[in-house]
Amino acid sequence: MAAHRSLLFGCGGRGQVHVDVYRALRNVELAAVCDRIEERREAFREKYGVPAAYADFEAALAEVQPDIVDSATLPGHRVWEAETAAKAGVKAMIFEKPLALKPSEIEGLERVHTQYGMEILTNCQRRYFPQFRDGIIRDIMHEKIGDLYFIRASSKGNMMGMGPHIMDLLLFFLDEARPKAVWAMAHTINETGYQETHLAPESILAEFWFPGDVRAILDCDVDALGSPGEESFWMHLHFDCLGTKGRLYLTQNQGYWYQSIGMAEPVHGESSFMRQDWAAQRDFTQAVADWLDGGPPHLNRFELHKHAVHALLGAQRSVYAGTKIALPAAYTDEEWSALRERLRGA
Predict the structure, then answer these.
(1) What is the C-alpha to C-alpha distance for residues 82 and 340, in angstroms, rounded to an integer?
(2) Integer Cα distance of 28 and 6 in angstroms
(3) Interval 235-279: pLDDT, tens
(4) Are residues 105 and 177 in the same domain?
(5) Cis preceding linkage at 51, omega within 30
(6) Residue 257: inside a domain, yes or no?
(7) Does the N-terminal or the C-terminal CB of the chain have fewer CB atoms within 10 Å?
């Protein structure tokens, strides 16, 4: 089987995670890297034995003619990157999260996807952790703890930091159900550190109404309880799920456990970012090439992840409106900007 050619766009910290798994893939090869900073791209080319390195994205697309673009760039230019790649004949483009910051960006990506037929994927690779991919957690939620009625999902960091991972997994656990309504509150605009590029209120608490009378509280907040024992905010991610007959407690790094009525002791399982992430990134990337070869649809395809983006932006729209709103909700870039100015002033 002929190998698909991939171009890595962005040789920063996340790019290292993306590129490292290519040595373990079957039907895809890393043909080139692209980064405007010469020192970074040449370091990647030498360290990983990549055939070519480019400073200009459009030149790289023209010369390499990749089937896949693996983008590990910062958010803010996703629509331009996607349309430029699609016009060059790229079949699939992987984006780091967040996929979009503003309403116009997710709308622009929808247009590119529809107009050119290029597959767009979000690197929420946790769906490929075995406890998620193999249905273990969903089985617990839907079969072991009775009728699920409440989920608390929490992370430190703002809504566009870890928020996309939380919402992506939440929708995955709920069999891609879409929230019907949201009520949210927020405070503070911080434009230092990662928040300079991951634009969102620094602290937001949102309540979502899902089909089947399932309620979810999403907490993306520097002051959130987060996961006990974690230091880096990137590692704070956990779910507390209540059913009519039991409870599931799931953390990113410290395993999970559930207990139902009649069980003397809880059942424990593994959930470890440090031990599971490399294999998940490998399987995520492999699944892109397999999908292009006619394999199963990718778990992180645009048709699914766009609903996570709409839910996150819907929460911000609720803050702007100051009330509970029905979803999906119309939200404009002007309202998005006005909310930031309001919170900045407050």
Answers:
(1) 26
(2) 7
(3) 889 999 999 999 999 999 999 999 999 999 999 999 999 999 999
(4) no
(5) no
(6) yes
(7) N
Written as one letter, the residue type at 265 is E
Spell out the residues 6+ positions from residue 227 whose beta carbon is closer than 8 angstroms to its own.
154, 235, 236, 237, 238, 251, 252, 253, 254
- One-letter amino acid at 266 equals P
Pairing relation of β-strands 52-54 and 181-187?
unpaired
Query: Which domain does 120 fall in, by range?
Result: 4-126+277-301
Number of domains the chain is built from:
2
Same domain flag for 26 and 155 = no
pLDDT of 127-145, one tens digit each?
999 999 999 999 999 999 9
Confidence of residue 74 (pLDDT cuts 50, 70, 90): very high
The pair phi, psi for residue 122, each rounded to 5°, is -110, 135
The C-alpha atoms of residue 92 and residue 89 are separated, in whole angstroms, by 9
- Predicted TM-score of the model (pTM): 0.95
Structural domain includes residue 333: no
Distance separating alpha carbons of residues 219 and 167, to the nearest angstrom: 11
Cβ distance 168 to 305 under 8 Å? yes
Hey, how many other C-beta atoms are within 10 angstroms of the C-beta on 141?
23
**311 and 191 fall within a common domain:** yes
168 & 283 share domain:
no
Same domain, 239 and 191: yes
